Structure formats: structure tokens, C-alpha cells
Amino acid sequence: MTPLYYDLHLHSCLSPCGDEEMAPGNIAGMAALCGLQAVALSDHNTCGNCAPFLAAARAVGLIALPGMELTTREEVHVLCLFPGLPEAEAFAAYVYARLPDIPNDEAVFGPQLFTGDGDAPQGREPRLLLSAADVGLYDTAALVRAHGGLAIPAHIDRPSFSLLANLGFYDPAMNFPVMELSHRADETALRAAHPELEGVRFIRNSDAHRLEDIRDAQNALHVGVPTAEGVLGALGLSKN
Ligand SMILES: [Zn+2]
Ligand SMILES: [Zn+2]
């Protein structure tokens, strides 16, 4: 088992709140400089920059996973991680079909930029990606699993867009064995306040929206095989 330093929650310039400098090549370069070894891109409700991100991350020797930060019907953010691009893009098409057709107001939310080779902008996503998709929280784990991936409720300690803030509790019937804490979270206090989290495993990511938010390597996973599938396996996703 090899400890791998990871950050599996990073936003690119395709997220309206993501800084325009968060182009895939820049993210990959910064992640490598920070000593990270496994990274995932997780823009809001889209996998549209995952292809250039995977290429850029692999070019600098990182293990890279395509992902998305889904906004469920309950306005809960859920990190969805996939072993490869086909699985991620199939899930992204499913989500996009359930995303309200509200145009993005760039003056309010910022541009949503697709990028290509060398981080060059290649176009804009016209639909606002911050809206809630018509996907229910009780269906999310199974849906992501059916696409070969793993669903992880994001930043559950935060006061907005989180499972505990929006619902007030965790129901184990939702079937999320792994959840994400923000880097400042007090795990002991959270577990004391929410005994229903017993047995749930926590990971921590940066949720970086700016290059300077990508943090030095500090969280490690013990991975059997150093691949995207190996990372998902270390998080408890079985192949069957
Ligand atoms: Zn979020
Ligand atoms: Zn995020």
C-alpha cells in the first residue's frame, strides 16, 4: 500500500465561481508543485473540462480522476468521482438533462469557460451551472454507482449547500459511507453532534476555486494500485 497525497475537489474556470486562472494546465502544475499525487476536477454540475484536465494532470505525472460537484434537488453539494472519462461524461449528460435551462448572467456569476490544449479558452457554457439539478439525494449514491463512480457529500460541516445544513441530519438510507469535511472542520465535535455519522469515513479536500487555494499535500490515502480506479478502491468503491 502506497500513501498518496490527494485533493479530489478542485474547480476550474468552467465553474462560474472558479477563477479564470483555474485552467486545467495551471491547476495540474500547481497541484504538482504542492506535492499532490492524486487529483480530481469537480466543477459544478459539469464534466466539461475533465478531458483537458486529465491530459494536463497526467502530463505532469499525477493520477487524475474526472469528477463533478453535483447540486441535488435539495441544494446539497455532492462530489461525484469516476474512474474514467466515458463514465463521467455519461453521468454529466444525465445531469445536464435535469438542470434548469436558466442562462448564466456573467455579470453576476462570472463566465463559465471551456478550455482546450494549452489552457486556451474554447467557448462558454451558456446555462447557469449553479442551479440545482433535478436529482434527489436519496437517488444520488446509486445513480453515481450505476455510472461506475462514487458519491461523497461535500463539505458537510459548512453552513450552506451541505447535507447537514440543508437536511439537519444524515439518514444512512442515503448510503454515503464516505463524506467530505472542509479543511477547518472539527471532526470530534461533528461526530458528537451527529451520532448518526458513526461508521462514516471522512476525507478532506481543498475545494479550491483559485490557484492559491490549492493546499500543500497533507491528506493521504493508502492506495493498492496507483491509478484512478485504485484511488476509488481506497475510498471503498468495489468493482462490482
Ligand atoms: Zn460545494
Ligand atoms: Zn466545490
Describe the secondary-structure layout:
Blueprint: E1 2-10, H1 24-33, E2 38-44, H2 50-59, E3 63-71, E4 77-81, H3 85-96, H4 106-109, E5 113-115, E6 121-124, H5 137-146, E7 150-153, H6 163-167, E8 178-181, H7 187-193, E9 201-204, E10 220-223, H8 228-234
Parallel strand pairs: 1-2, 2-3, 8-9
Antiparallel strand pairs: 1-10, 3-4, 4-7, 5-6
Helix pairs in contact: 1-2
Bound molecules: zinc ion (2 copies).
One zinc ion (ZN) binds at residues 69, 77, 154-155, 161.
Q: What are the defining features of this structure?
A:
alpha/beta, 240 residues, two-stranded antiparallel ribbon, six-stranded mixed sheet, TIM Barrel
What is the overall number of helices? Answer: 8
Mean pLDDT: 96
User: How would a textbook summarize the main sheet?
Assistant: 6 strands, mixed
CATH class: Alpha Beta
Total strands: the figure is 10
Radius of gyration: 16 Å
CATH H level, superfamily name: Metal-dependent hydrolases
What is the spatial order of strands in the main beta sheet?
7-4-3-2-1-10
Query: Which regions contain 5 or more consecutive residues with pLDDT less than 50?
Result: none
Task: Assess the beta-strand content as a share of residues.
Answer: 15-25%
Structural class: alpha/beta
N-to-C SSE series? EHEHEEHHEEHEHEHEEH
- Morphology: globular
What distance separates the N and C termini?
A: 21 Å
Helix content: 25-40%
Bound compounds, each kind once, are:
zinc ion
| Total domain units | 1
State the CATH topology: TIM Barrel
What would you say the CATH architecture is? Alpha-Beta Barrel
